[in-house]
Amino acid sequence: MRLFLRNVVLFWPVGVGSLFGQGPTLSGSGYSSPAIWGVAPGQITTLFVTGLQTVLPEGGAQAETLPAPTSLAGLSLELAQPGRPALPVPLLSLRQISVCSGDGDSADCLITALTVQIPFELQSPPEASATELTLIENGLRSRAFRVLPVSTQLHILNWCDDLPERSGAACGGIVAHADGAPVTADAPAQAGETVVIYAYGLGTTTLDVATGEATPATAPGAVNAGVETAFDFRANALPSPAYGGSAPLFAGLTPGQLGLYQINVRIPEEIPPAPACSLETGVVSNLTIDVSVETSGGLSSDGAPICVEGAL
Q1: How far apart are CA 272 and CA 65, in angstroms?
Q2: Is the pLDDT of residue 101 over 90?
Q3: Distance between CA 119 and CA 211 in Å, rounded?
Q4: Secondary structure letter of residue 295 according to DSSP
Q5: How far from each other are the two terminal CA atoms of the chain, in whole angstroms?
Q6: Would you list the domain boundaries of the chain?
């Protein structure tokens, strides 16, 4: 059994017979050195697992109620740190995809995606370092898999994430107007407007929210880590660290949601000249809101590309 963090590309250029038996298995590709992946308190993330015996029904399995269950379809996860009781990990959804050609849907053909919430009780450095995840399938425990605990692991949601609903062809950040409507090319942000950026992985907050529970509507908690934002008005600008930026109006958990954070940012009153968003010209964003948050030993950064009105 092997665990993979979401967004790792998996390839197996070998026959199914050798996939889980003898012989080499190519399990990923990219341009970075292999590394133990990080997890932050409260983070929503997806694990890719191979080697399970469970075959899910079409459509997978979903958590139907809150608090989120710690077992779905006979699968569960535990997170362990030295000197502390093992923590059950809430499961939000399970999905499977076959990597075999044709109609292969036997267990040895399947990759299982488990969307989970890392417990808020996770201790990050300097309090703890050694951390392990164990998967339990119908009472049988897997080997323990090492993960790296970090205080934050920022990911700004975008329309290319694996979401139930998607909007538009571009991978713009999921950013909303004050009325909750998404900021899009047809409904761009305005100069001086306050917009809401949605994200995962900002860590602990001033409000102690139970793992697997929705954030109370009456008292959203602000994140404990320092957050900075900056504005890049270049067309189609990629996210970059918000060095020398300013603090947002608010950064914390979103009321009524599970593990979802929001960053409230006010667009500058004066917008420098920039090309307007247009599919004809290939401009899919004319403002990238860069966000950086303190994490264990450095910064965790991401950005939200959006369209703003008033540009040329």
Answers
A1: 47
A2: no
A3: 5
A4: E
A5: 54
A6: 2-149, 152-312
Instruction: Give the span between the Cα atoms of 289 and 248, in whole angstroms.
Output: 11
Q: Which two tokens stand for residue 290?
A: 């860069």
Residue pair 119/133 in contact by the 8 Å Cβ criterion: no
Taking the C-alpha atoms of residue 261 and residue 64, their distance in angstroms, rounded to an integer, is 21
Q: What is the pLDDT of residues 109-163, one digit of tens each?
A: 888 999 999 999 999 877 767 899 999 999 999 999 999 999 999 999 988 887 5
Write out pLDDT tens, residues 179-188: 999 999 999 9
- pLDDT attached to residue 172: 77
| Omega within 30 of 0 (cis) for the link into 126 | yes
* Per-residue model confidence (pLDDT) at position 30: 64
Residue 148 and residue 38 in contact, taking contact as beta carbons nearer than 8 Å: yes
Across the range 214-235, mean pLDDT stands at 93
Question: Tokens 């059950």 belong to which residue?
Answer: 88
296 neighbors 151 (Cβ within 8 angstroms): yes
Q: How far apart are the C-alpha atoms of 80 and 4, rounded to whole Å?
A: 18
DSSP string of 151-212? S---EE-BTTSS-SS--SSS--B-EE-TTSPBP-SSS-B-TT-EEEEEEE----BSS-PPTT
